[in-house]
Amino acid sequence: MLALLALTLAAAPAAPAVPALTPEALKARYGGLRRLSADVVQVKEGRYWARPFESRVKLRYTPERVEWETVAPVRAQAVIEGGALYVAFADGRRSELLPMAGDPRLAALLRFVRALLAVDLAGIERDFVLSYGPGELRATPRPGSDLALFTGLRLRFGRDLEIASVDLETPQERTHLRFEHVEREPAPDAARP
C-alpha cells in the first residue's frame, strides 16, 4: 500500500512554485489601485483571548474610504474617511473616536491601513523595513516609528500576486486575515492590455 502511494505521489505533477516577490512586480500589480473588495476571515489570538476569536468581515477599499464591516459574530462597521475613524452600528448609530483624533499614532495607523490595503510599498516603508521571499512580503518596524506597536507584519500572495493573507503581530496579540473573493479595480493604465 505504501509503495502504491509513493508511486502515485512521484507521478503527480508538482504544483508550480510561487515566485519570489519583487517590488517591481507588486508595484505593477497594485500601483494606482482604485478599488478593492474582499471577504475576510479574521482570527485573533493572544494574551487577552481565552481561545482564538474568529470573525467574518466584508472589506471595501477606495483611496478615499475604507469600510471594514464585521458581519459575524456581531454586526458593526468601522469606517476610515479622510483623517477620521468611526464605528457605524446596524441601528444607524455612529461612534467617532474623537478622544484619539489629535493623536499622531492614530494618524499613522490610518495612513498605514490605507497603505497596507493598497499594497503601497512606499507607504508601508515609511514605518517598516521590507524583505521579500517566495510569495510573501515581511515587514519589521523601523526604530522610532509611530507604529512600533506592531512587532511584525507578513503579507502572502498567490501565484497571480493576488493578496491571500496578512498576519499582524503585537507583543500581546496575533491577527491573521485570510482574503477570499478578492475583486480589485486597477488604475486605468494598468487595466489596458
Molecular structure report:
By secondary structure, the chain is α+β, with helices and mostly antiparallel strands. It has one domain: Lipoprotein localisation LolA/LolB/LppX (outer membrane lipoprotein receptor (LolB), chain A). The chain has five helices and eleven strands; from the N terminus they run ααββββββααβββββα. It has an eleven-stranded antiparallel beta sheet with strand order 6-5-4-3-2-1-11-10-9-8-7, with helices on one face. Strand 7 and strand 8 form a beta hairpin. It is globular. The termini are far apart.
Radius of gyration: 19 Å
Going by CATH, the architecture would be Clam
In DSSP terms (H or I, runs of 4 or more residues), the helix count works out at 5
Q: State the name of the first-level CATH class.
A: Mainly Beta
Please outline the helices and strands.
Blueprint: H1 2-11, H2 23-30, E1 35-46, E2 53-62, E3 65-72, E4 76-81, E5 84-88, E6 94-96, H3 104-117, H4 121-125, E7 128-133, E8 136-141, E9 152-157, E10 163-169, E11 173-185, H5 188-191
Antiparallel strand pairs: 1-2, 1-11, 2-3, 3-4, 4-5, 5-6, 7-8, 8-9, 9-10, 10-11
